[in-house]
């Protein structure tokens, strides 16, 4: 039985009703979304199209994707569940076969790496010197890759082709072992599947990266992977709190010494995808990046992302540069303390800048409080006002400017998280327009739409949408009607947000151009930037 046949045999309403209390609304069913907290139903199921859609959090799909999401199952696991509960069996797709093959090769490679660590005593002694013991090495399955083509030859002898080994990310461009001369840390996802490896150079070599990860494969995405989550999730869920630190070694030492609700990221790049994974288990986030300038910057960024997802954010305080050093120095866990991140930051900036450098102080601190609730925001504005001796109303005005121009900050993550938001707003605007046929000129909103949504809008206008697209619009229309929103007010509010995004993007591009322009062109670009800034201020003033 193929995938389409499975979807046709499984009634989505019957499946969803096991998890969500549904109520018939016309030709749809609605209920409270199981994927986010809400008090009014924004979750709809279409028996005709056999799809679900939540207009609160954006989740949507078919019966297969619903089961994967609600049960936290892999593509492979969902079919095992379908077979077990519904007696249906599916043919495996080529993509699934590739993923299975990569997993199979990874397990074979791990067997090789672990055996080589037993033979290569220098690498093992290095791990002992770093504070690990035999029990930890065995439990976390650490290994070693000697070099040359030994691992490749081992896998080849097991019956795997060169192409298959390469697809698993285990060979370099010259078909040598990718991790040669490295201590191996296996990477298991939260379900325990062995999706890749990290290699730590040993012995040290000049011009070689200290750490090397499996490249992106069908099953490994670095920006989504958290080391140790598989081992720590039960402790995290119990405490509803996660400590995030840098690197595998720090994780292993923390776990060994009794700090078990921990995960680590590669480097210090905590992404929104990481945080969404953590959010399934915890509501409190404790930042424990290295006590250096890179760690400090990373925590600023992490706090903003965490605020967006409603985490309570704390900072882990310890004297050493990193947690690894802390445990190597045989410190006691009682010497570690947690403080509210913004309280820590306020004290840190006092130490760095004092009252003299008010500009730098505010440039760092104000963006960190921009998304707080009114009570918390007022608390920190009062602290700032008292310490820097600046009237609170002036600080509020400065904060407002930062709120307007926040997305101009050249952070790597913004491009990844901001554009989908723009697309989502554009779809909402077009859906409102479809549902209520406002008396508004196309030129007043069309230029501000996301490019993909522009194409969708034109097809909608020319009656060229397919059945599924029309059905989605009808579900949205029903949602707008059921929730009793003021459609015109919602349309204007959404358009205002889209205009803000449009102007901010324009300003950001122009500021990049400004770096490479001279004389008359420079003045012209500055003039353009100022004109867009004026438009932004107008929008806020008319708010």
Report the average pLDDT across residues.
85
Number of domains: 5
Structural class: alpha+beta
Instruction: Sketch the major β-sheet.
Output: 5 strands, antiparallel
> Which runs of at least 5 residues are low in confidence (pLDDT < 50)?
403-420
Distance between the termini: 56 Å
Q: How big is the Rg? A: 27 Å
The shape, in one word, is globular
Trace the largest sheet across and list its strands. 1-2-3-4-5
In which range does the helix fraction lie?
40-55%
Strand portion: 5-15%
Counting DSSP H or I runs of 4 or more residues, the number of helices is 23
The number of E-state strands comes to 14
List the helices and strands and how they pair.
Layout: H1 3-9, H2 12-16, E1 23-25, E2 28-31, E3 43-46, E4 51-54, E5 60-61, H3 63-71, H4 75-86, H5 94-119, H6 121-129, H7 134-139, E6 143-145, H8 150-157, H9 162-167, E7 182-188, E8 194-201, E9 211-213, H10 229-239, E10 241-246, H11 248-256, E11 262-265, H12 272-279, E12 284-288, H13 293-308, E13 312-317, H14 323-328, E14 337-340, H15 341-353, H16 358-369, H17 374-388, H18 392-405, H19 412-436, H20 451-461, H21 467-483, H22 487-514, H23 519-541
Parallel strand pairs: 10-11, 10-12, 12-13
Antiparallel strand pairs: 1-2, 2-3, 3-4, 4-5, 6-7, 7-8, 8-9, 13-14
Helix pairs in contact: 3-4, 15-16, 19-20, 19-21, 19-22, 22-23
Characterize the structure shown.
With 543 residues, this protein is an alpha+beta fold. It is built from 23 helices and 14 strands. α19 packs parallel to α20 (451-461), α19 (412-436) packs across α21 and α19 (412-436) runs antiparallel to α22. The chain has five domains: 3-86, DNA Primase, Chain A, CATH 3.90.580.10; 94-220, DNA primase, catalytic core, N-terminal domain (DNA primase DNAg catalytic core, N-terminal domain, Alpha-Beta Complex), CATH 3.90.980.10; 229-336, 3-Layer(aba) Sandwich (Dna Topoisomerase Vi A Subunit, Chain: A, domain 2); 354-403; 412-541, no CATH class.
């Amino acid at each position: 039985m193929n995938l389409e046949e499975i979807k046709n045999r499984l009634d989505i309403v019957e499946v969803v009703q096991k998890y969500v209390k549904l109520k018939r609304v016309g030709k749809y069913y609605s209920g409270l979304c199981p994927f986010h907290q809400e008090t009014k139903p924004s979750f709809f199921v279409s028996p005709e199209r056999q799809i679900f859609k939540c207009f609160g959090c954006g989740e949507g799909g078919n019966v297969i994707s619903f089961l994967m999401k609600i049960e936290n199952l892999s593509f492979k696991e969902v079919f095992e569940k379908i077979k077990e509960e519904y007696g249906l069996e599916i043919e495996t797709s080529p993509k699934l076969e590739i993923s299975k093959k990569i997993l199979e090769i990874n397990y074979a490679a791990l067997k090789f790496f672990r055996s080589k660590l037993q033979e290569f005593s220098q690498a093992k002694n290095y791990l002992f010197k770093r504070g690990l013991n035999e029990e930890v090495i065995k439990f976390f399955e650490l290994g070693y890759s000697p070099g040359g083509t030994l691992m490749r030859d081992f896998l080849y002898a097991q019956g795997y082709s060169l192409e298959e080994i390469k697809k698993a990310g285990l060979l370099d461009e010259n078909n040598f072992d990718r991790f040669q001369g490295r201590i191996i840390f296996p990477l298991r996802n939260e379900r325990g599947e062995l999706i890749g490896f990290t290699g730590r150079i040993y012995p040290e070599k000049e011009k070689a990266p200290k750490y090397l990860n499996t490249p992106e494969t069908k099953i490994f995405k670095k920006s989504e992977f958290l080391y140790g989550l598989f081992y720590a999730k039960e402790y995290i869920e119990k405490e509803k709190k996660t400590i995030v630190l840098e690197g595998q070694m720090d994780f292993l030492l923390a776990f060994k010494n009794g700090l078990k609700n921990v995960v680590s990221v590669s480097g210090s790049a905590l992404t929104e995808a990481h945080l969404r994974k953590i959010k399934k288990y915890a509501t409190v986030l404790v930042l424990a990046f290295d006590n250096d300038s890179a760690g400090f910057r990373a925590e600023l960024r992490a706090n903003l992302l965490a605020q967006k997802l409603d985490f309570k954010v704390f900072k882990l305080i310890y004297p050493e540069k990193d947690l690894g050093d802390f445990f190597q120095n045989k410190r006691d866990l009682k010497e570690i303390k947690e403080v509210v991140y913004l309280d820590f930051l306020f004290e840190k900036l006092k130490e760095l800048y004092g009252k003299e450098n008010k500009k730098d102080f505010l440039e760092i601190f104000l963006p960190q409080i921009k998304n707080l609730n009114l009570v918390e925001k007022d608390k920190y504005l009062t602290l700032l006002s008292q310490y820097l001796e600046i009237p609170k109303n002036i600080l509020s005005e400065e904060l407002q400017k930062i709120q307007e121009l926040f997305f101009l900050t050249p952070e790597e993550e913004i491009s990844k998280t901001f554009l989908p938001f723009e697309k989502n707003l554009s779809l909402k605007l077009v859906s409102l327009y479809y549902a209520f046929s406002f008396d508004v000129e196309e030129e007043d909103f069309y230029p501000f739409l996301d490019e993909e949504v522009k194409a969708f809008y034109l097809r909608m206008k020319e009656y060229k949408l397919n059945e599924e697209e029309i059905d989605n619009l009808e579900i949205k229309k029903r949602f707008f009607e059921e929730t009793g929103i003021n459609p015109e007010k919602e349309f204007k509010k959404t358009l205002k947000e889209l205009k803000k995004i449009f102007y901010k993007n324009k300003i950001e591009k122009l500021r990049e151009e400004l770096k490479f322009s001279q004389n008359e062109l420079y003045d012209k670009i500055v003039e353009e930037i100022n004109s867009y800034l004026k438009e932004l201020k107008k929008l806020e003033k008319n708010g």
